[in-house]
Amino acid sequence: MRRSIHVLVALAALGTVPGPWAREQTPAAAPAAPAPDEAALQAELEALGEEFEAAQRAFYAKLGELYAPYRDREPSEAEAAELERKAKELYAQDPSTSFVPRFAALAKKAPGTLVAAKAWLRVVNIGGDDNAQVQGAVAVLLAEHLERAELTELASALAYTRQPPEFVRSTLGTLRSKSPHPSVQAAATLSLASVLQSEDLVQAKELYRELAAKFAALDAGWGGTYGEIATRALFELEHLQIGMLAPDFEASDENGVKFKVGDYRGKVVVLDFWGFW
Amino acid sequence: MLPHEKALVERLKDKPFALIGINSDGDAAAVRKLLAEQGITWRNAVDVSTEGPWARAWNVSGWPTIYVLDSKGVIRFRDVRDAELEAAVNELLAELEAAK
């Protein structure tokens, strides 16, 4: 059942885990008409964020509890059915659902401000497949906040969103060509490459090459620079696809003995990247 | 995964088959301890962390990530698990047998 851990990690990535944008604190252009109570709204946003994160932690703890007995063994058929039923029940109480309208309402109280931008970004991040809310938030972000560096968060989130591919591609295209910030352009290029990877390999490779050429030294905030990320992605696309000869890699085993993948020629080999953590 | 992998290794112990773990839990001593605790008998590369050299080189960003290679070293399946993994390995072993 290690798969469930994987799913949790993926889910966490959609929610509260700080992403590349967390480091970026470039002050945005001053809003046209600063609301006098922006400090109060900022405090309100922070409080709502904390409330959401607490609710989400409790939710993930319950989810973790549910899967805990099956960390070391497979559930029986009856247990698996019960697990599925309980998980479904639990997912129905996902706090994201109830917090989306609350973040949206807060954003509407302070149109054009940084607080609004951050609240709309929350809606995108936790909106899941609530298309009306997410696409509405994206429309406002592109119309009123395109000049903000905080939109790296939008660019990154779109790599994992459950929104329709057409919508994702066009939004990323806008961010790539219209944002004044290299950090936003780079994040959008990376997200576009990763969403295109499964459908248009040629274009995905072009985008990774562009990323490596234009933003080589720019820190992505995780996984190193965009140059490093793009180089690794290109290696995977060019050497690690089905039908390709596996590249040799020299490793050292648990007894300190060196070996290579190529030593196993003549055998069917399963390579399992794993961890217990 | 683990119970399935143990069964697979046991069932295919006399076949031209190898399961190789690439572990990201720590150094060689940590991996030896983990293998003993978990009763894992197959070879494991010590990749130290999720940012280990092999995981980095192969752009691994999710765990587990699985590659299945045929006897010529060609990548034939990716990210198959449990029953799918079993079927993939069976297919490649049958192919190898047929080529003899």
Structural class of chain A: mainly alpha
* Total count of strands of chain A: 3
Strand segment tally of chain B: 4
* Gross geometry of chain B: globular
Unreliable stretches of chain B: none
Spatial ordering of strands, largest sheet of chain B: 1-2
**Relative helix content of chain A:** 55-70%
How much strand content do the residues of chain A show?
under 5%
Reading the helices and strands of chain A in chain order gives HHHHHHHHHHHEEE
**How are the strands of the biggest sheet of chain A laid out side by side?**
1-2
| C-alpha termini separation of chain B | 31 Å
* Fraction of residues in β-strands of chain B: 15-25%
Between the first and last Cα atoms of chain A, what is the distance in angstroms? 14 Å
Q: In DSSP terms, counting alpha (H) and pi (I) runs of 4 or more, how many helices of chain A?
A: 11
What do you see in this structure?
The complex is a heterodimer of chains A (277) and B (100). Chain A has 277 residues and is mainly alpha-helical. Chain A has 2 domains: 1-163, no CATH class; 164-246. Chain A has 11 helices and 3 strands; from the N terminus they run αααααααααααβββ. Chain A has helices at residues 2-14, 38-67, 77-91, 95-109, 114-126, 131-144, 152-157, 165-178, 182-196, 201-214, 226-239; strands at 250-252, 258-260, 268-274. The model of chain A is unreliable at 1-27 (pLDDT under 50). The N and C termini of chain B lie far apart (31 Å). With 100 residues, chain B is of the alpha+beta class. The radius of gyration of chain B is 14 Å and the shape is globular. In chain B, the strands form 2 sheets. Chain B has a two-stranded parallel sheet. A two-stranded antiparallel ribbon of chain B has the order 3-4. In chain B, β3 and β4 form a beta hairpin. Classes of the chains: A mainly alpha (277), B alpha+beta (100). At the A-B interface, α1, α11 and β3 of A face α1, β1, α2, β2 and α3 of B.
